[in-house]
Amino acid sequence: MAATKSDAGTRRDFLYVASGAVGAVGVAAVAWPLIDQMNPSAAALAAGVTEVDLATIQPGQQVIVKWRGHPLFVRRRTPAEIAASKAVDVASLPDALANNDNLPSSAPATDANRVIKPEWLILIGVCTHLGCTPTVSTPQMPEGDYGGWLCHCHGSMYDTAGRIRKGPAPRNLEVPIYSFLSDTRIKVG
Amino acid sequence: MHFKTLSLGIAIGLLASTASFAAVDTKRLPPKEEKFSFEGPFGTYDRGSLQRGYQVYKEVCAACHSAGHLAFHNLTEKGGPEFTEAQAKALATAAKVPAEPNDKGETTDDKGVPLLRSATLADHLPSPFPNEAAARANNSGALPPDLSMIVKAREGGPQYVYSILTGFHGKTPTGFKVTEGKYFNPYFEGWNISMPPPLAANSVTYSDGTKATVEQEAHDVVTFLSWASEPKMEERKQLGFGVLIFLVALAGILFAAYRRVWKDAH
Amino acid sequence: MSGPSTYTPKSGIEKWIDARLPLPRLMHDTMQTFPTPRNLNIWYTFGGILTFCLAVQIVTGVVLAMHYVANAGLAFDSVEAIMRDVNYGWLIRYVHANGASMFFIAVYIHMFRGLYYGSYKAPRELIWIIGVLIYLLMMAAAFFGYVLVWGQMSFWGATVITNLFSAIPVVGTHIATWLWGDFAVGDATLNRFFSLHYLVPFIIAAVVGLHIWALHVPGNNNPLGIDVKTPQDTVPFHPYYTVKDAFYLVLFVIVFAVFVFYAPNFFGNPDNYQQANPLVTPPDIVPEWYLLPFYAMLRSIPNKLAGVIVMGGAIVTLVFIPWLDTSRVRSCRFRPTMKWLFWFFAISCVILGYCGSQPVDKAFAGIPLVWIARLTTLYYFGFFWVLMPIIGLIETPKKLPASIAQSVLGDSAATPAE
What is the CATH number of domain C286-394? Predict the structure, then answer.
């Protein structure tokens, strides 16, 4: 008699627990679409990743691509520009951090930490001071004292690795997350 | 919409400062203490000043600056310049706005020139440039901000805008070099402004015989722009006066009731 | 809401309703006969004022939503259309915008009052904790609402605040992206903030119901902080407190009206009359004034994650106050040391707010503001976590009055007042 009662109790407990567990799975299954709908939509994702063809860009030239609402600088550096950047003492920089989204935030702002391949410099073209778009410097049309960029708004000067050298901007130009799909094609985002 | 350009323009305005920060402190000077009729709890817009100010806006500012939140019918409304309907209609008709597609669905003529039509009272004031890029291309990269809210969108309000308009032509301080293509204006943050001095004596000819000095023109156009920023100000102050009288009366009655009720409790 | 009811239905209809849905009974017991300490002062009228504020925000908000367009391209223009074209739109929008500030002024007075008179102490801990929850919900609602204007400060404020989540290790950036619905604050963000801004006030209204329910179990605390002992200590809520609350409410509304009609942009920021522009950051990003003390704490900590933790901790701390205060005595009137520390605390909150409103690199009398903010932040936490428990144990409180009635009416309290 007592055994039967406890048996029934056990079975009942099991059924309670089982219904609770299955119900919880159901609730979780319903909750997920409700949570995930807030993540970037397919349209936002498509707009958030841009592929850039590098084949047509000449050494010393920069092209600007729009990415996630921001201008994106894609610059093919000349050997002289790379050498000038490498010669800089990181300790002397106003911002000694790489500001490279592909690296840990503590990475120092060496030239190697600003690029994946030295020839290609990929930057978000937003001045870290007040968000203007800096103007690129070329040997024919020099801008600023460091051969990189000059922001005409408040005179911030960036070098050939996009690092802030002079002026009110606090940080180096940001390097976005990107990867090389091939030698002549990158994927940004 | 075309107002989108507004904020970028302001940005350029703010940003048009200089690389000479090392030598001189180019913090903007406090605005001049110009008095306006619409200040204070009972202040109203000076009707004549508003109408003259519209003239200055139309004949000087509108060459580069839009005022896209304003419609022509606003010009007739109470508390504003209060042009007669006929006057406002004439002003609207004289203005050209982009036409709707014609029956062939075209928005440009054979040569690719956009089709235009006369504005009506329902139309907003036309923008001098079709889009932001065009505005920048025509102003050496700077974007003239939309003026319909400029007075509310600036710290210092009417005095600030007045000081900018009348703040050119000062002697450039030693040690400060004006950036090429910019103009010296110490009331502007950074002292370098992209806008050339917009006003000169007799830039406009006032039909009411008012002498068109730079100060007068600036005063009038700032009055107009203040109204453009806050077109319901007179209605607001009037209604507020009634509301406050009502509330004070109500408070008085309630205070008496409160005293009466609590008299028993002590 | 609790305790024995004194309601007796007067008519057949009342009796009929009461037997089926005792709503008249509830109203009678909570709003009419509810015994309320007779010595509540002006600072106790802010509960009613806050209920009024919530109602104003919901009514004006629902009406504004009839004209507002939650679209990044149209939002700013639709607000301006409300200001210019909609009949009385300027009035409704200015009431709603200033209403948010008035709401926070009232809630801060209400909170400091609770702190001063020890209203969080047993048996009112849950009232206090529910109140902290309401405060949190208010901050959320205000933040969402400020973004809807889609001005420069709206946009960059939203960017700064949502970026705080990216300080969380590992999942931080995913949380930020999830909040944005994009890779930056944008149209998707604006739309969801509108949805939430419409939802949160109704949640607040429900939680306010709990707050009042919890209040009606032990009844009001009072400036003396002593318990109600005899019926002579109390008066019925109506008409004594209905009329008193109404009078002070009207005084509050007068102040409210002065702002709405004569200084409608006093609490605002000129930058927010410029449309949001993702490509241009304003020179100084400042949140609305009611969030400034927390913003100052955030900025005074050089490490982003630590700053976020400190800021969150400042609010979470409030939940623990009922147990951090070890004193037997509730009211600061009878706590000579605590009274001073309380006022230092109030002043330090104001100083923090000032620090938050100024550019980061500014100094006051040669001392960098960031250090002043650090010191006051330290006092904020020290006040609750160190001083409150210790002072409660070592302080000698003044002698408490025997009863509320005796304190108010003198020794003649033995005789009934009415």
Answer: 1.10.287.980
* Closest by Cβ to C273, choosing from B152, B237, B244: B152
Query: B191 near B18, Cβ under 8 Å?
Result: yes
**DSSP designation for C28:** I
Q: Where in chain C is the domain with CATH 1.20.810.10?
A: 35-264
Query: Are residues A158 and A83 part of one domain?
Result: yes
- CA distances (Å), origin A85, targets A102, A157, B261: 19, 14, 83
**Fold classified for C35-264:** Cytochrome Bc1 Complex; Chain C (1.20.810)
Residue range of the domain that includes A7:
1-39
Task: Provide, for chain A, the percentages of residues in helix, strand and coil under a 3-state DSSP scheme, each rounded to the nearest 5.
Answer: 30, 25, 45
- Tell me which residues of chain A, numbers 126 to 165, contact chain B at a CB-CB cutoff of 8 Å: 130-132, 152-155
- As for how many domains chain A has, the answer is 2
Contact (CB, 8 A) for C130 and C211: yes
**Span B230-258, mean pLDDT?**
97
Same domain, A35 and A50: no
Which of C249, C252, C273 has the most B C-beta neighbours within 10 Å, making it the best mutation to test the interface with B?
Answer: C273
- CATH code of the domain occupying B25-70+125-255: 1.10.760.10
The DSSP annotation for C60-125 comes to HHHHHHTT----TTTHHHHHHHHHHTSTTHHHHHHHHHHHHHHHHHHHHHHHHHHHHTTTTSTT-H
Determine contact, residues A74/A84, Cβ cutoff 8 Å. Answer: no
Token output for A32? 């997920």
Active-site residue flag, A154? yes
State both tokens at C337: 């040391």
| Chain segment B192-238, per-residue pLDDT in tens | 898 999 999 999 999 999 999 999 999 999 999 999 999 999 999 99
